[in-house]
Amino acid sequence: MNILVTGGAGYIGTPLVDLLCANPLVEKIIVYDNLSRTNYNLFIGAKKSGHQKLQFIKGELLDSRNLKRALEKIDVVYHLAARVTTPLANSDAHQFDQINHWGTAELAYLLEESSVKKIIYTSSAGVYGSSSEPVDEQVDPDPKSFYGISKLRAEEQIRRLSERMQVYIFRCGNVYGYNRSMRFDAVINKFLFEANFEKRITIHGNGEQSRSFIHIDKIAQALSNLIESDLTGGTYNLVDNTYTVMDIVDEFKQLIPELEFILINQYLNLSNLNVKRNQLVNYTLGIARETSLKTDLSEFLKKLRF
To answer: What pTM value is reported for the model?
Structure first.
C-alpha cells in the first residue's frame, strides 16, 4: 500500500507518519508539505524501523504539476495540509480560501484522474459554528469564521469524489498534547506553556466558553487505524471530551498550585462549540478508551525540559 500525506510534517502528520511507518501493510509513504510552519522535527532523530518507506516532496497544494507527480501509484491519501491560525481564525480570509478551499479543490481535481482508492480528509468541528448543545453529524454546518467557511468548502470538494473512491471526512475537535512537531497556539497547549514557564494563564472572556477536544495521540491512532478498518465512508465527528476554559484551568491548578490566572474582558460571554462524540467511530477506530484531562496534562508537563 502506497500512501500520500499532505501536511505530513505538521502537528498531526508527524505522529501519523510514525504509525504508518510501523504498519507492515504500508510499502511507501510520501510526505507532501510546504514547511510553511518552519517545523523540521519530522526529519530529525534516530532512524527507526520503517524509515526506508519515507519520501519527502516539498510542494504547495496549488502546484498542480508537482502534486500530480506525488499522486502517481498512490493508493491512499491523507489530506491534512491546511492554513490554521488559532485563535485568529477570522484574519486573512484570502489565505484561508486559497489554501484550505482551492488547494483542496486542486487536489480533488487530480484525484479524479488518479488510481487512488481512499481519501481521508481532516476537516474541523469549526464548520458547525457555535452551539451550546452537543451537535452531531446530522446538524447543518453554520461556520462563523473564515477558517470554518474554508474547511466547509473543502469538504464539498472532497465529498464529490465519493462515486470514484472511498471518502472519509473527519470533523476534528481542538487537538492538544505533546509530540515533537508541537503547536503552542492551540488553546490547551498554549495554557500549558504559560502555566509551566510563567505560572500565569491569560483567559479571554469569563472562562465559561466550552470547546470539544481530542488528544493528538488519539487522532493519530484513529487515522492510522482507518486503513485497516471496516468503517464505511462518510462524514464523522472525531472528538473526545468537551471542557470549559475554567475546567482546564482547574486541572492545571491541581498540578501547579501556585498558578495564577488573569481574565481579560471577564464580563464577555464568548460562544460555545460543543460537538457530540461519535461513540461508534471512536470504538471502530480504536480510541474509545477513557482518559482524564489531568492525566494527559501531567504526562505533557513531563515532556517539557524544565
So the answer is: 0.95
Q: Which amino acid appears at position 132 of this protein?
A: S
Q: Indicate the average pLDDT of the chain.
A: 94
Cβ(215)–Cβ(188) below 8 Å? no
CA dist., res. 4 & res. 15, Å (int): 15
Task: Count the neighbouring beta carbons within 10 Å of the beta carbon of residue 281.
Answer: 22
Average pLDDT on 78-82 reads 97
| DSSP reduced 3-state for 3 | strand
Three cell numbers written together for 273: 462549540
Find the radius of gyration of the CA atoms of the chain. 19
CA-CA-CA-CA torsion sign (19, 46, 291, 198)? negative
Tell me the domains of the chain and their CATH numbers. 2-174+213-238 (3.40.50.720), 176-211+241-274+289-303 (3.90.25.10)
Q: Tell me if 199 sits within 8 A of 239, measured CB to CB.
A: no
Cβ-in-10-Å burial (0-12, 13-18, 19+) of 285 comes to buried
Structure-block grid coordinates of residue 192: 500549558
Give the sign of the dihedral formed by CA 282, CA 79, CA 304, CA 256.
negative
Amino acid at 103: G
Task: Kindly state the helix (H) or strand (E) to which residue 68 belongs, with its residue range.
Answer: helix 64-70
Q: Quickly state the pLDDT bin for 234 (edges 50, 70, 90).
A: very high
**What's residue 91's pLDDT?**
67
DSSP tag of 160: T
